[in-house]
């Protein structure tokens, strides 16, 4: 049975900067749908991403779901690297639903460690904190998903632009799923709403190995706001 630890709330201003010379391994946060989608390519992409995480000894933090793309990436990585490589973070309100989906409880051998938090904001802050404290190559990845995936993706892009973190943000663009979003960024740049240098905060990858490379080689934009978020 899953070890459902409970966490307290953390604000974005309390998210630490990565420690220089940190000995921690890389951590990737994956945002994705709790649905499998209509094309098998989406599940295949989730599976291939988990296989690449295993290949490169990268840990996963994700939203704690047991179905759809969320469940697939967690199950696959747990089966390959062991449950210690997977950390699911889920609000208490959603826990009952996920237990139903998983047949009564979230099996930590299948889905890794589960931490139960009070709300959606705490969930996102906890996942971001693990990425920021991770080793080189840590970052955020969006597989295909719906409203929630897009909201989480845009928030970590905004945090990067504001200087809250400097981790890479990658969309795994399966069958052109994120073509519209990528075009919107270009349109926003040409319309003067996104600085040209900040267009590169969001990076596209077309396969799982490219996701890993883009995070490893990620370059921080010079157009980001240079703000001190350590101030209270």
Describe what this molecule looks like in 3D:
The chain is of the alpha/beta class. Mean pLDDT is 89; it is low at 1-22. It has helices spanning 40-55, 68-81, 92-101, 108-111, 120-132, 147-161, 179-190, 208-216, and strands spanning 4-6, 27-31, 59-62, 86-91, 113-117, 139-142, 168-172, 202-205. The chain is built from 8 helices and 8 strands, in the order E-E-H-E-H-E-H-H-E-H-E-H-E-H-E-H.
Helical coverage, percent range? 40-55%
Task: Tell me the fraction of residues in β-strands, as a range.
Answer: 15-25%
Strand count: 8
Distance between the termini: 39 Å
Shape type: globular
- Note the run of SSEs as H and E: EEHEHEHHEHEHEHEH
Task: Give me the secondary-structure category.
Answer: alpha/beta
The poorly predicted ranges are 1-22
Q: From the alpha-carbon coordinates, what is the Rg to the nearest angstrom? A: 17 Å
Sheet having the most strands: 8 strands, parallel
Cross-sheet strand order for the largest sheet: 1-5-4-3-2-6-7-8
User: Averaging pLDDT over every residue, what do you get?
Assistant: 89
Question: How many helical stretches?
Answer: 8
Tags for this entry?
8 strands, alpha/beta, eight-stranded parallel sheet, disordered N terminus, 8 helices, 232 residues
Produce a short descriptive summary.
This protein has eight helices and eight strands. The protein has 232 residues and is α/β, with parallel strands linked by helices. The chain has an eight-stranded parallel beta sheet with strand order 1-5-4-3-2-6-7-8, with helices on both faces.
């Amino acid at each position: 049975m899953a070890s459902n630890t409970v966490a307290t709330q953390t604000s974005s201003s309390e998210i630490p900067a990565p420690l220089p010379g940190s000995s921690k391994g890389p951590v990737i946060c994956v945002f994705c749908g709790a649905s499998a989608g209509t094309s098998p390519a989406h599940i295949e992409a989730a599976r291939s991403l988990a296989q690449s995480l295993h290949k490169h000894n990268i840990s996963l933090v994700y939203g704690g779901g047991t179905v759809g793309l969320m469940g697939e990436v967690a199950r696959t990585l747990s089966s390959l690297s062991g449950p210690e490589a997977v950390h699911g973070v889920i609000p208490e309100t959603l826990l009952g639903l996920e237990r139903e989906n998983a047949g009564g409880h979230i099996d930590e051998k299948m889905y890794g460690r589960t931490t139960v938090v009070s709300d959606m904001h705490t969930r996102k802050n906890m996942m971001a904190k693990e990425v920021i404290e991770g080793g080189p190559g840590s970052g955020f990845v969006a597989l295909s998903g719906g409203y929630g995936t897009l909201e989480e993706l845009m928030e970590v892009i905004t945090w990067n632009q504001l200087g809250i973190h400097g981790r890479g943000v990658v969309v795994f663009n399966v069958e052109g799923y994120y073509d519209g979003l990528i075009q919107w960024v270009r349109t926003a740049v040409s319309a003067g709403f996104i600085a040209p240098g900040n267009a590169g905060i969001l990076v596209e990858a077309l396969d799982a190995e490219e996701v890993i490379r883009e995070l490893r080689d990620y370059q921080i934009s010079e157009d980001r706001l240079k703000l001190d978020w350590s101030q209270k």
